[in-house]
Each structure stands twice: as structure tokens, then as C-alpha cells.
């Protein structure tokens, strides 16, 4: 009798471990992003056009992320993502202006860098988990960049290094028995005249734990602080590899 009880206990523990394994998981992904830049920035008398004045066009960046999920209902899951988002170009100015106290003349050739690279830390809950997956949570986006313009009068710069809280929604729609899926992820915040929105749409094919995904990402920034303004849009297509365990 005692041996039978021990055997039943072992079977119950094994079943419990198997159940936990089914609901404890990790997802990781990485992609190359073909970025198209446009917009304007201001830190003084006039706005500077990124395309006409600074010579911005296209750039290639990368992003990678990892998400960990667990079976404890009251504790949120966690997702970390890093995105490299910077461009450096040389351009010929179409007008005179000041930027961060430095004066720049019309037709002057300047070197500039705009860096909107950031790290996202997201806490979220899984609302749906079947052929439709839906996650809802909060992201803290930590910028660590700047906008700088260098000319004959010196270099002016404004820092972009503040943490920004954002709403987070991540959805995935699986087409049963095919391996095909569609996904969408949105981070957004709006307060006063300031707004940041970041939307990603993807279409993928999953074979086992590995998936290939093509998609489109649109990142919009509208920020205003006294005489400093940034109205920037970066968008383009990406190709990703995803591992789902």
C-alpha cells in the first residue's frame, strides 16, 4: 500500500511539472529594420528639416527582444527589447538658424547625428491564450540618445535620455494547422502637445519553435519643451527570426 501511494505521488508530481512546463515559456526575436527618416527638430530660432537641411534618407537598424512568461497569475510577465535607432549624415543648410545657442548660416555644410535608440522594459498580463493571443501592460521606454549638429561655429546638441511610460498591447492571430500567423504590437502615450506612438505589424511562418517574420514598423515622436521640439517619423519594413519555447 505504501509503495502504491509513493508511486501515485510521483505520478502526480510529474503531471504537475508537465503542466508547469506547458505554461512557462520564453520568446526571443531579432530583426533588421530598413528605416526611412523624416521630420524636423528645433532648439532655437527655427526648425531644421531632417531631409532638406541635414540630408537624412534611409538607414538600417536592428532590434532584439526576449519575453518570459510564468504560471503565477498575480505577477506580471516581463518583456525586454532593445532598438538601435540612429542616423549620421552631412547636409547643406537651406536657411540660417540657431540650434542650442550655436549659429548656422544658409548654404553651410554641417554634420549631424540623431539618436533615438531605446530600451523597453515591459510588464504585462496575458489576457487571451488560444488561437488569439492578447497581452496588455505597461512599458517604460528608456531613451539614451541626442540630436547634434556640427558646423563652423561649433556643435549644438540636445539630449534625449528620459524614461517614458507607455501603454502596451501585443496581439497574435494563429491560423490553425498552417504555421502561419499575423501579429501586431503597439506602444503609445499622449500628454498635452507630446505624443509617442510605435506600431509594429508582422506576418510570419512558424515551424516548430523557430519562425520567420516580415513586417512593418512605424515610430512617431512629437515632443515639445520650451523652445526645443522634435517631430520625427521613422518607418520601414523588417525581416525577423523568432524563437518560441
Automatic annotation (TrEMBL):
The keyword Signal applies. Keywords: Signal. Residues 1-21 form the signal peptide. It comes from the Bacteria. This is TIGR04219 family outer membrane beta-barrel protein.
Amino acid at each position: 500500500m505504501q509503495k502504491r501511494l509513493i508511486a501515485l505521488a510521483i505520478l502526480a508530481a510529474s503531471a504537475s511539472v508537465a503542466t508547469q512546463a506547458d505554461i512557462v515559456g520564453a520568446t526571443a526575436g531579432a530583426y533588421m529594420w530598413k528605416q526611412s527618416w523624416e521630420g524636423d527638430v528645433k532648439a532655437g530660432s527655427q526648425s531644421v528639416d531632417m531631409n532638406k537641411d541635414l540630408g537624412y534618407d534611409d538607414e538600417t537598424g536592428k532590434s532584439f527582444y526576449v519575453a518570459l512568461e510564468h504560471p503565477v497569475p498575480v505577477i506580471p510577465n516581463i518583456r525586454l527589447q532593445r532598438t538601435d535607432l540612429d542616423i549620421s549624415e552631412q547636409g547643406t543648410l537651406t536657411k540660417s538658424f540657431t540650434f542650442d545657442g550655436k549659429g548656422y548660416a544658409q548654404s553651410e555644410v554641417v554634420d549631424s547625428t540623431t539618436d533615438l535608440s531605446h530600451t523597453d522594459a515591459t510588464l504585462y498580463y496575458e489576457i487571451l491564450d488560444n488561437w488569439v493571443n492578447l497581452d496588455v501592460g505597461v512599458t517604460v521606454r528608456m531613451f539614451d540618445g541626442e540630436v547634434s549638429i556640427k558646423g563652423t561655429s561649433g556643435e549644438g546638441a540636445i539630449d534625449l535620455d528620459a524614461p517614458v511610460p507607455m501603454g502596451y498591447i501585443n496581439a497574435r492571430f494563429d491560423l490553425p494547422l498552417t504555421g502561419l500567423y499575423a501579429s501586431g504590437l503597439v506602444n503609445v502615450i499622449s500628454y498635452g502637445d507630446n505624443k509617442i506612438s510605435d506600431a509594429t505589424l508582422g506576418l510570419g511562418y512558424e515551424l516548430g519553435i523557430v519562425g520567420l517574420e516580415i513586417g512593418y514598423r512605424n515610430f512617431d515622436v512629437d515632443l515639445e519643451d520650451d523652445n526645443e521640439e522634435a517631430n520625427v517619423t521613422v518607418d520601414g519594413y523588417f525581416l525577423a527570426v523568432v524563437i518560441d519555447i
